[in-house]
Amino acid sequence: MNDVDSADKRRRPLRLGVIATVLTGALLLLCCTGGTAAFFLAGLGGDDAENGDTLAGMECGPVRPVNITGKLPRFTEYGDAQIRNAAIIIKVGQDMGVPSRGWVIAVATAMQESALRNLANSGVPESMALPHEGAGADHDSVGLFQQRPGWGTVAQRLTPAYAARKFYEKLIKVSSWQRRPLSVAAQRVQISAYPDAYAKHEELASRIVDALSGGAARTVEINGQAVCDAAERGQIAASGWTAPIPGGVGSGFRTTERPSHNGVDIGAAKGTEIRAAAAGRVLVATCDPDYRGKRDCDVDGFPGKEGCGWFVDLLHAGGNITRYCHMMVQPFVKEDQMVSAGQVIGKVGSSGNSSGPHLHFEVHLRNDRNSSGAVNPVPFMRERGAPLRAAE
Ligand SMILES: [Zn+2]
How remote is the CA of residue 238 from the centroid of ligand 1, in Å? Predict the structure, then answer.
C-alpha cells in the first residue's frame, strides 16, 4: 500500500508547453497510489472524526449581520475606510437577502474598480464637490463600483449603499449567477474592458467577507439557508469552491509513511464524477506516461507503474492549481478550456500508479506545479467551505 515511495525514486520530467510564463522547461510530476485499503477500513468505522471545532481559527457559524459602525477586522491590504466600504457592501447584500456568493462578487468587483475607495472623478466637477476618497478619471465613472451616469445621479453613485444596491439589483438578474465564475458574473454587471481582472480578487474578497460576517464565504445557499461546509456534489460555496468528489480522505498529505505524497487520496467508486474544485483554466489534460514511458491510461494501473494516469491540472484565480489523478477514461476537458466550479471534468478510476479506484487530489500555490508548490488540500479546502471529509 505504501508503494508510492518506489515511484519517488524515479522521478520523471513531464514536458509542458502550456504556461510558459509561469514555468519553463520540464516539470516534475509526483504521483500516488493506494491508500484505498486504509480508506475502506477506516470507512467501516464511520466518519465521526469529522469535527470542524478541532480546527482552530476556521470559523463558520451562523452568518452574522455586519456592523458597519463598530470595530472592524484589519487587513494589511486595505485601510479602515476601505474595509468599512466592504462592510457596507456586505450589509446591503444581507439586507436585500442576496446569497453570500453575491457579497463576495460585489466586494471583489469594488476591489477591482476602486480598490474599495469611494472615488470622485476629476472630469466630473460635481463629484469633486461631494465627499469622496480619492479621484479617478475613467470616463464619467464614480464611486465604489465606478458606475456611469445610467446607474444614477452623481450624488447617488457616490453613496456606497446606493451603489452597492444597484450592483446587486443587476447581479441577481444574471441567470445562474451563483454558479458562474466570478469574472463572468461580475462582468455581466459591470461591462468592463478588463475581462479577467475580477477573479484575481476572489480570494481576498472571500477572506474579507468571512472576517466581517462570521464565515459567510464558507457557506452554501441550500433552500434559502446558508449552510457551512456543505460544498460538495456540485454545491458551490460562496468562496467559489466545491469538493471535487464527495467522500473521505484516506491516505493523507505527506504523512510519516508517505512523506512525498503531495496530495490526498479520496476513495470513491469507479466512475464517480470528478468536479472542478473552482473556476479556472485547464493547464493539462492528458495521460501521464508510466515507468516505461508508455501511455496506456485506459487500463487500470498498479502500484509501481508510476504516473498519474489520466489526469487534469486546473489553474484558478490567485495562482492556485488543483490536480486530479487516476481518472478512468480520458478527461472531459481539454487544455486551455475554461471550466466553472463544479463542472464535471472526468471520472474516478485507477489508471497509473494506483492500487484501486480513488481520486488523488493535489493543491498547489503560486502557480507552482512542482512538489514545492503543493500544500495540504485538507485545510485549504476547509478554509473555502468545501471540506474534504476525514475518513480516518
Ligand atoms: Zn495519492
Answer: 28
Nearest Cα residue to 262 out of 19, 31, 18: 31
Cell numbers for 359: 481520486
Query: Does residue 228 fall inside a structural domain?
Result: no
Contacts of 132 (CB under 8 A, 6+ apart): 118, 119, 120, 142, 158
* Total tally of structural domains belonging to the chain: 2
Return d(Cα 89, Cα 220) in angstroms, integer: 19
Q: Is residue 292 located within the same domain as residue 380?
A: yes
Q: Confirm whether 368 is domain-assigned.
A: yes
Residue 374 Cα to ligand 1 midpoint, Å, equals 13
CA distances from 43 to 83, 247, 327 (A): 44, 10, 22
> Block means of pLDDT (10 residues each) for the chain, length 392 residues?
34 36 35 39 30 43 83 93 97 96 96 97 96 93 96 97 98 92 86 75 93 92 88 92 92 94 96 96 96 94 95 94 98 95 97 96 96 96 89 48
Residue 145 phi, psi (nearest 5): -105, 10
Q: What is the CATH number of the domain that holds 370?
A: 2.70.70.10
Residue 262 resides in a domain: yes
User: Which pTM value belongs to this model?
Assistant: 0.82
From the CA of 32, how far away is ligand 1's center (Å)? 4
Beta bridge partners, 339, equal 280
* Cα 333 to ligand 1 centre (Å): 21
Q: What does the block give as the cell for 315? A: 489553474
Q: How far is the CA of 260 from the centre of ligand 1 (A)?
A: 10
Residue 136: burial class (beta carbons within 10 Å; 0-12, 13-18, 19+): buried
DSSP 304-357: TS-S-SEEEEEE-GGG-EEEEEEESSS-S--TT-EE-TT-EEEEBB--SS-SSS
Domain that holds residue 39: 4-49+245-390
